């Protein structure tokens, strides 16, 4: 579904991502592991069209995204839930969700169905749908951020650090929902520092360091790797 081939991204003279190769097949959960600054968010922004590819190619369902605008990328079936949530705090939950469906704004029935689906996944959002997004707890804000991305009806959902700053119980609930979203047919590319939780639900993973992939394998292979345990799982 998604292929990155020798993708390089420069910020001026600084190389943020260097010759990254990555594959995501339809139906998979794929995790990108790595510390802050390793290049995970840069990869996500580049897939979404917010950064330009300096060299290499990004292919989605066989078509290059290199010169595609961010709105067209969303229309093609890729939605991103950004790190830090990036909600509109002075807008209600319902208004934030409708913003996520902007590319489908002419299909009012479809938007209603998508919103009901989000409320099924996150009942607390339905209960608080007329509350301002800024009034929500951290966990509820993350639910809303994921829900807003789902409103675009993505084939591929990019989740950038969804567990950051959340209590362990909320993290567990979040990963349960991510699995549910995947089982319902959405392919997921997940950037995470919480390797323990991410590898439990992922099919495979890539380890980033200084803008490059230094290790890749199935979740079982990465779990069994002593370096990964030491660096990311604390074992």
List the helices and strands and how they pair.
Blueprint: E1 2-11, E2 14-24, E3 29-33, H1 40-47, E4 55-60, E5 63-64, H2 70-76, E6 78-81, H3 93-100, H4 108-121, H5 123-127, H6 138-150, E7 156-160, H7 168-183, E8 187-192, H8 195-201, E9 204-209, E10 212-218, H9 219-224, H10 226-233
Parallel strand pairs: 3-8, 3-9, 6-7, 7-8
Antiparallel strand pairs: 1-2, 1-4, 4-5, 9-10
Helix pairs in contact: 3-6
Describe the structure.
This protein is α/β, with parallel strands linked by helices and 235 residues long. The protein has 2 domains: 1-77 and 154-166 and 186-235, P-loop containing nucleotide triphosphate hydrolases (Rossmann fold); 87-152, no CATH class. It contains 10 helices and 10 strands. It has helices at 40-47, 70-76, 93-100, 108-121, 123-127, 138-150, 168-183, 195-201, 219-224, 226-233; strands spanning 2-11, 14-24, 29-33, 55-60, 63-64, 78-81, 156-160, 187-192, 204-209, 212-218. Strands 6-7-8-3-9-10 form a 6-stranded mixed sheet, sandwiched between helices. A 4-stranded antiparallel sheet has the order 2-1-4-5, with helices on one face. The longest helix has 16 residues, at 168-183. The two termini are 34 Å apart.
Shape, please?
A: globular
Which strands sit side by side, in order, in the main sheet? 6-7-8-3-9-10
Task: Quote the average pLDDT.
Answer: 92
The helix-and-strand class reads: alpha/beta
Per DSSP, the total helix count is 10
Radius of gyration: 17 Å
Helix content: 25-40%
Number of domains: 2
Low-confidence segments, given as residue ranges, are none
Give the biggest sheet.
6 strands, mixed
CATH topology category name of the largest domain: Rossmann fold
The name of the CATH architecture of the largest domain is 3-Layer(aba) Sandwich
């Amino acid at each position: 579904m998604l292929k990155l081939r020798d993708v390089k991204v420069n910020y001026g003279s600084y190389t943020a991502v260097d010759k990254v190769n990555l594959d995501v097949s339809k139906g998979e959960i794929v995790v990108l592991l790595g510390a802050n600054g390793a290049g995970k968010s840069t990869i996500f922004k580049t897939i979404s069209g917010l950064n330009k590819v300096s060299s290499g190619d990004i292919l989605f369902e066989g078509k290059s995204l290199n010169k595609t605008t961010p709105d067209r990328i969303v229309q093609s079936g890729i939605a991103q839930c950004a790190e830090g949530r990036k909600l509109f705090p002075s807008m209600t939950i319902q208004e934030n969700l409708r913003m996520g469906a902007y590319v489908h704004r002419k299909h009012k029935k479809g938007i209603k169905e998508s919103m009901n689906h989000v409320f099924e996944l996150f009942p607390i959002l339905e209960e608080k749908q007329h509350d301002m997004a800024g009034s929500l707890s951290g966990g509820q804000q993350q639910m809303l951020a994921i829900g807003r991305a789902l409103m675009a009806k993505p084939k591929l959902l990019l989740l950038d650090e969804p567990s950051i700053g959340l209590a362990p119980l909320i993290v567990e609930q979040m990963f349960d929902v991510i699995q549910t979203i995947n089982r319902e047919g959405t392919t997921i590319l997940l950037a995470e520092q919480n390797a323990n939780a991410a590898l439990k639900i992922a099919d495979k993973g890539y380890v980033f360091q200084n803008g490059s992939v230094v290790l890749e394998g199935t979740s079982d292979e990465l779990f069994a790797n002593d370096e990964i345990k030491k660096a990311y799982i604390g074992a």
